[in-house]
Specification:
By secondary structure, the chain is mostly helical. The chain contains 10 helices and 3 strands, in the order βααβαααβααααα. The chain starts with 14 loop residues before the first strand and ends with a helix. GO terms for molecular function: G protein-coupled receptor activity; olfactory receptor activity.
């Protein structure tokens, strides 16, 4: 890519504005209500999972420990993006300063990366539970679970810090630039740079491979062993239960890794900014919303704990 010279109005600190979804007031109100409803559902659903896991001793196992952390990441992940997005839909567009854009990118990338790493950790947990059931409690100790979550978070923070710092060393043209997106994501911000970004794009691909491709391959290997173990099970009920648990996890995995790969691993020549923004809506709203739905509707343990919690609260009210 040929380097571009900075143009026009370099006075004052640089800042960005996000491109609007629509300029029609009726559609703006509709989008605001839709995204607000989805955000509240994400907060409510994932908070419910955290509450149920934390308050029911029967769910204090490694699988639900990881699920609890996944729900926390989903809440944090969407909260980095959606409140600012809603404020820009409702009313005049509000500029975001360079430092604010960098902070949002750092937290968005780090939380999203930790989410991907955690899904790989959960696949390993299912591998141990199904392929080595007698040794499960010996292998998946509380200490190891905490270490795996800490490593996932630490690696995500390290990669995100390096990528964000590298991108924001670039010069950006003009005083106020429009981002064709609803957040400060890496690809749309890179497009605004007034310099050669080939090295930065290469770094983005490397980070994308580390965050998406490597964990996805580990998940595939885990599920090859899991599938072999399930097929060899003699109990039909055991096979059904194992497939049910694993299919829930695989649904989240395919949606998360698939959408993110389309944005971060496709060649720039085959992508458009509008497509990236539409795909980003999926992993910003749909995946965090499906997480609690999939893990509760397809999981007897969580449904039972929720039922007991509701009945337990209803009983004292009925007694009065």
């Amino acid at each position: 890519m040929v380097a571009r010279s900075p143009v026009l109005n370099q006075s004052g600190p640089a800042e960005f504005v996000f491109r609007v979804f629509t300029t029609v007031p009726e559609f703006q109100a509709l989008l605001f209500l839709l995204f607000l409803l989805l955000y509240l559902m994400i907060l409510g659903g994932n908070s419910t999972i955290i509450w149920v896991v934390r308050t029911h001793s029967s769910l204090r196992t490694p699988m639900y420990f990881f699920l609890c952390n996944l729900s926390f990441l989903e809440i944090s992940y969407t909260s980095v993006v959606v409140p600012l997005m809603l404020s820009n839909i409702w009313g005049a567009r509000k500029p975001i300063p360079l430092a604010g854009c960098g902070a949002q990118m750092f937290f968005f990338v780090s939380l999203g990366s930790a989410d991907c790493f955690l899904l790989a950790v959960m696949a390993y947990d299912r591998y141990v539970a199904i392929c080595h059931p007698l040794r499960y409690t010996l292998i998946m100790t509380q200490k190891l679970c905490i270490q795996m979550v800490a490593c996932a978070a630490g690696l995500a923070l390290l990669l995100s810090l390096q990528l964000t710092a590298l991108i924001f060393t670039l010069p950006f043209c003009g005083h106020r630039r429009e981002i064709n997106h609803f957040l400060c994501d890496v690809p749309p911000v890179l497009r605004l740079a007034c310099a050669d970004i080939r090295v930065h794009q290469a770094v983005l691909y490397v980070v994308g491979i580390l965050v998406l491709t490597v964990p996805f391959l580990l998940i595939c290997v885990s599920y090859l062993f899991i599938t072999g173990a399930i097929v060899r099970m003699r109990s039909a009920e055991g096979r059904r239960r194992a497939f049910s648990t694993c299919s829930s996890h695989l649904t989240v995995v395919l949606l998360q890794y698939g959408c993110c790969s389309l944005v971060y691993l496709r060649p720039r020549s085959s992508t458009s900014e509008d497509e990236d923004r539409q795909i980003a809506l999926v992993y910003t709203f749909v995946t965090p919303l499906l997480n609690p739905l999939i893990y509760t509707l397809r999981n007897k343990d969580v449904k039972g704990a929720l039922k007991n919690a509701v009945l337990g609260k209803a009983a004292p009210s009925g007694a009065n």
